[in-house]
Amino acid sequence: MVRRVDLADFLRARRAAITPAQAGLVAGGRRRTPGLRREEVALLAGVSVSWYTWLEQGRPINVSVEVLDALGRVLQLDPVEQAYVAELTGHQAPRSEPVRRPEVPPWAHHLLDVLEPAPAYLLGPSWDYLAWNPAQADLFPPLAALEPRDRNLVWAMFAVPETRELLVDWENDARQVLSQFRAETTAIRDDPAVVEMVARLQVASPEFAAWWGQHDVAAFTTRLRRFRGPGQAVRVFEYQQLVVAGAPDLRLVVQLPLDADPEA
Predict the structure, then answer these.
(1) Hey, which of 24, 42, 123, 128 has its CA 20 to 30 A from 54?
(2) pTM
């Protein structure tokens, strides 16, 4: 049911973001709400108004791939958003067991050490920090001091005050983390650990609470991340993420230093 509620919220948000002109309709007179009406979405997607209304109400109705494609065209969803909606409607099998914190494989510690001096860490399926190298500990000192249940990338981004001081472009980085987290954890969105984390973050961070409701989803993209170093010197890193072959729930994140001074 959590995923159905997310689906309903997402559809309403995207419907409100599409103007009649963008959908190829004549706007007509004044509108009480922005975006398209439910009736217009249903007409353009070739479904009944009642059925689409039930979908936006979060009812557990069946949704075919063909209808999802039609809704995607009407709401002008990008590939990541389309995949997100597909998972919310059950077109990718959900987990039958709760997410458990996986054991750190022996190769992970070796690989993290080899990646020195590039800061690197290993994430689990719900984006918990599983392991990290000394360079990452130096770059982000609060990590080692976090309580075990708070050792999560999204928690560190939104609920740890030092993160806002360390990241030069905190708001942009935080929005990217949130949209990617939502997209990559859709299949486990109703897992108790994920539900609890989201609930705690909505209390701990006003920004998280506001942005979570916007339902932005995005795939990972290589990007630059800037940290404030000693004396307010800015350190620049190229942010890379690798999905482990044979263990798709694990993500290896590497931050490649781009400082001009190799000793930095």
Answers:
(1) 24
(2) 0.78
